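thread from #wetlab-drylab

HS: before we spend reagent money on co-crystallization trials with adenosine monophosphate, can we at least see a predicted complex? here's what I'd submit
DV: go for it
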Amino acid sequence: MRLVLLGAPGSGKGTQAQIMQARHGLPQVSTGDLLREAVTAGTELGRAAQVVMQAGGLVADDIMLGIIRERLARADARRGFILDGFPRTQAQADGLSTLLQDLGTPLDAVVLMEVDPEVLLRRLAGRRSCRRCGRVFHIETNPPAPGDRCADGRAHDLFQRPDDNEATVRQRLSIYRERTQPLIDHYERMGLLRRIDANGTLDEVDARLEAAITPR
Ligand code: AMP
């Protein structure tokens, strides 16, 4: 299955992609995670991306398409993938179509995760990630369970993303409306779009997402 999760920052794309990855064995391909890895590694890409991410902007389309081309060429993506945070612009969507056409493996579905604005802000404010394993939690609604440990057996080392501050969040939401929301119509026209109500608990959203991707 080749899937795109579409939705505003804080709509739960990463959280649901991690659940689906564990259940279906399909890799979560998060361009945000790939960029954060480059930032941590201190590569040239990482240094350039860090400035853009901190300001809540978008990294250039040609760079993002290069990253995706490399990532989808890896063996674990052959059976399918869950794209989380890509595409974010029309040029990225077009580039992805061309790439998948060349590979003979078109998308199966694009799931739009619809969330009320005040829920988005609450999710972003409480979001924490584990520095080591990358799992995403929420301090109120989804904290690590008492016995839940990181892959190395230690407790999760939670931190707040630097771009989850108020000013950057405002900019990210505005960029989402301007650059990414038009993709909803684009994928609707292609007959790929499925909408789900992504308000509610993790389990409720998970159930709606599974129902949306189950062949009818
Ligand atoms: P995310 O983890 O998906 O919220 O992404 C964090 C940040 O990484 C975004 O605010 C952008 O600055 C950058 N980024 C992630 N994915 C993309 C993309 N597909 N195109 C451009 N920039 C991206």
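DV: The longest strand covers residues 109-114.
HS: ok that's useful, forwarding to the group
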